[in-house]
Amino acid sequence: MNIKEGIKLTKNLPGEKTRKILKLKETYEPRSMSEQVPAVWERARGVYVEDVEGNVFLDFSSGVLVANVGHSHPRLVKVIREQADRVINCYDFPTEYRLQLARKLVEITPFNLNKAFLLTTGAETTETAVKLSRLYTGKYEIVSFYGAFHGRTYGALSIGGKKSGAGTHGFGPFLPGMILAPFPYCYRCPFDRRYPACKTYCFDFIVDWVLPCESEGRIAAFITETYQGGAGSIIPPLEWMKKLEKLAREKEALLIIDEVQASFGRTGRLFGFEHYGVTPNLLCLGKGITSSVPLSALVGESRVMDMLTPGSLSSTHGGNPFCSRVALENINIIMEDDLVENARQGGEFLSKSFRELLSRHSILGDVRGMGLVWGLEIVEDKKSKKPSPEKAREIVQKAYNRGLLMIAPIGTFGNVLRIAPPLSISRKELETGIEIIDSALSEAGKE
Ligand SMILES: Cc1ncc(COP(=O)(O)O)c(C=O)c1O
Questions:
Q1: Residue nearest to atom 8 of ligand 1 (CA)
Q2: Ligand 1 neighbour 288 (Cβ under 6 A)
């Protein structure tokens, strides 16, 4: 399959065929999925996506931060074909590929993490991390953060930091024993302070108020993302993360880092926690671990992981040889093609470019990111900072009309554009995407 590189658009978006397929969606599916622009994907290769009309879009979504090595990388396609012909699923009978992958994950993560449990989805890893923390510590409280996203199953939603809105509204009550604490969302500081002058006051608030008032002193774990993805690419100050690690140790609780989204080069380091110099006891991985097929992993310390007795946890598709082999090949591609470095350099370029856009566009309130994951916060105006989810949606639509694919806006207030191209993207392609965002911002800013 070949997609001729470069954006190509037919006159009317969306076309007839697209409209027909969207009608089927309306008729036969619940309305639970996010409202994406009307691009019906037919094929994707590298950083380009072709829809059913033959339009070619530049992809700033990577699916949903999955296709780190690019869509349908030829090396992945090759092993997928080969392995499909051998064996795909064999439940939890051991296979060479599963064990090679477990070993690889142990080798590329910090020395204290020496066992890997392979699963299928990100939510399974965060749920398993919660279970293991309780089992290991004999305590039950889990501290997580406002705005956090750890998946959509019940345990994962219970540690999620947004219980209102479309995501969770009406699903409660959630698991007991979960404590939510403020996260350093510096652009909208709930304490109206400014970093660094605030000296991470929000962290002191956790120690002085949240824990004394909410905790019985039975904390099993603290769980955080390295940057909050769903909340709008919110990056905590380095010292905040260090303080969190110290607090977890003091409380004899585990530190769970959820890198389902941040890992495998996305932030310009192989793992996001490397930016902060902290070490998790349990590490949740997913998405970019295969750049394609569903596989996730919980990597942890053997003293914790070995609390699980035989038969206590397994999963129908977890660690199947098909997905394991793809993950192994994917990790090799990331290393051999130096995609982490490409993401780091791309991040430097985006940082400069987005800051320049920030100085020119009145509806752009904040830009933040690392490597190839950025959030552009859309507001009514810079002074009021009032979130504008409507304008954010408009910009995503205008970008689509110009041949750039972005996911529907994210963020606690639904007003953040998410920029997350495959890590293999070139400088020229980044420039093209930025130009489109620039013109979409100009047009939306005038309306
Ligand atoms: C940080 C984080 N944790 C967990 C999940 C859940 O992963 P999944 O949708 O594979 O269950 C996601 C998915 O977006 C995520 O971003």
A1: 122
A2: no
